[in-house]
Amino acid sequence: MERGTSRPGGRTARVREQVLAAVVDELAEHGLEGLGVDGVAARSGVHRATVFRRWGDVGGLLADTFDAAASDTWTPPDHGSLRADLEALAREVLEYVGPPESSVRALMGAAERFPRAREALHRFLDDRYRRSAVVVERAVARGEVGASVVPRQVLVGALGPLYHHLLHLGDSPTEADAVAYVRMVVGGLP
Amino acid sequence: MERGTSRPGGRTARVREQVLAAVVDELAEHGLEGLGVDGVAARSGVHRATVFRRWGDVGGLLADTFDAAASDTWTPPDHGSLRADLEALAREVLEYVGPPESSVRALMGAAERFPRAREALHRFLDDRYRRSAVVVERAVARGEVGASVVPRQVLVGALGPLYHHLLHLGDSPTEADAVAYVRMVVGGLP
User: Fold this and answer.
1) Domain HTH tetR-type spans what residues (chains A, B) (predicted)?
2) What angle do CA A48, A52, A56 make, to 5 degrees?
């Protein structure tokens, strides 16, 4: 989830980018307890009334951060095998959500508190899984796996454990762990 | 995670039980925004000063709720096969964390906001996974799976996707989904 790459140009798009960048920076600097519309406005250089009018509150700011991320141009990897593609996806999760100072991780934690932000997080991840389904569909087309597999289940089966580690178990899975989860999902246990 | 079953008897144990039950009830009734030490004290019938002295704040109350749950007598299922045991564990996750009005789910969401509560959640789940490791160890002893498997990885691989669904994707996996995750982890893809 890289910073929003909405259509460039236009004052509105620029303001949105500045404000959402400030959300991430304020969250990183002050944590959720210190995140407020006023601080975001001050840091972004956008007028406080504009921020209030357009985003309403912290929940609205967090929600729009996810919505902006969901409108990027990200595409899933294509390395020629299901295992390699799932491993690449898993590495992306570790890269973006893994580091303790990860802004995505902070945003996911913060979203829990605001219904609108939580729904935007759901939409963001749902969109990622929909875009990633092609990874499984290509594997089916190559005859690597049967046509009965459910792409989303394969993806959530391989990546869900990493989110569970990072967000609920509080430990940091390594790349070897990520590879192990992919291996289990694709090939089962030895 | 059923309500604390700490050693019975003793006023201290009784007070703890009353207070932690009130935490769950207040959270269910008012949500995290409406959860406060005063409300918990009033509902539990325990003196406010006692609650403040012993638990400090909402984070302390939430943390102790997880710690109490971790000191119960829960043991994992033993149905004679790895798949059956993992499916039974998955059904427990669905039963306790699945329902939208689940108190465990509310507690997990709330814990995200308080470092002490978050650490207690990590301890609670870690304890559950340690107790559940025997499910995999028995399968190794029966020769069902190779001795090289890492019990915790198998458990997190099978159950992690359910927590990811419930807490991050906002959808409700069915028992069929849970069975599918277990099947993938144990037997791989068709």
Assistant:
1) 13-73
2) 155
Chain B residue with the nearest C-alpha to that of A151: B189
Interface test with A, best of B168, B171, B179 (most A CBs within 10 A): B168
Interface contact flag, B181 A153, Cβ < 8 Å: yes
Q: Give domain limits for chain B.
A: 11-70, 82-187
Q: DSSP 3-state assignment of A19?
A: helix
List the single residue in B with minimal CA-CA distance to A129: B169
Enter the DSSP assignment of B50.
H
Is the ipTM higher than 0.85? The answer is: yes
- Cβ atoms of A145 and A57 closer than 8 Å: no
Residues 6+ away with beta carbon under 8 Å from A148:
B190
CA-CA distance, B181 to B120, in Å (whole number)?
27
Class of domain B82-187: mainly alpha
Q: Which CATH architecture has domain B11-70?
A: Orthogonal Bundle (1.10)
The gap between the terminal CA atoms of chain A, to the nearest Å, is 34
Contact B34, B26 (CB under 8 A): yes
Longest dimension (CA), chain A: 60
The token duo for B54 is: 């012993």
The per-residue pLDDT for range A42-90, each reduced to its tens digit, is 999 999 999 999 999 999 999 999 999 999 999 999 999 999 999 999 9
